[in-house]
Amino acid sequence: MKIAISSDHGGNNLRKEIMALLDELGFSYEDFGPQDDSSVDYPDYAKPVSEGVASGNFDKGILICGTGIGMSIAANKVKGIRCALVHDVFSAKATRCHNDSNIIAMGERVIGPGLAREIVATWLQTDFEGGRHERRIEKITALEEQK
Ligand code: RB5
């Protein structure tokens, strides 16, 4: 599995923590920055991860900002992206089982690194259930075509 990850300045510390987790778990990933702590605009960092996942270059994406909200809004503007804003382990599992989310967003100012690690590990290791949920994903995709 190939993973793309990025943050804004508000998510730099948690992004480093999550990259350490990915190393520990043996997942390969590409880091889309930022490379220093200067203030940046989160859509600029959501874009390469979201487009990378939507194009199939990456299987999953991880986006982190202060709240996770800006990143999730930006990511969900990209066709084919189902980005879930998650701050608990139950939702991490449910959004893979039911929504087949392909990007997870989290807020460094919302949760601590221990919980964030559990969330990401759960999210990466949970499969989509398919079945009735497949029909619902198809209806989400149909909404994208309405524009
Ligand atoms: C940056 O200050 C902050 O607005 C950003 O990290 C994020 O929380 C936006 O949704």
TrEMBL record:
Gene Ontology terms, MF aspect: ribose-5-phosphate isomerase activity
Pfam entry (one): LacAB_rpiB
Coiled-coil ranges from the UniProt annotation: none
Keywords assigned: Isomerase
Entries under InterPro entries matching the protein: RpiB, RpiB_LacA_LacB, RpiB_LacA_LacB_sf, SPI_LacAB/RpiB
Keyword field contains Cytoplasm: no
Isomerase found in the keyword field: yes
UniProt-listed Gene3D superfamilies: Sugar-phosphate isomerase, RpiB/LacA/LacB (3.40.1400.10)
Enzyme class: isomerase
EC number(s) on file: 5.3.1.6
Family per record: Belongs to the LacAB/RpiB family.
NCBIfam families (alphabetical): PRK05571.1, rpiB, rpiB_lacA_lacB
Protein name according to UniProt: Ribose 5-phosphate isomerase B
Source organism (scientific name): Kurthia gibsonii
Gene that this polypeptide is encoded by: rpiB
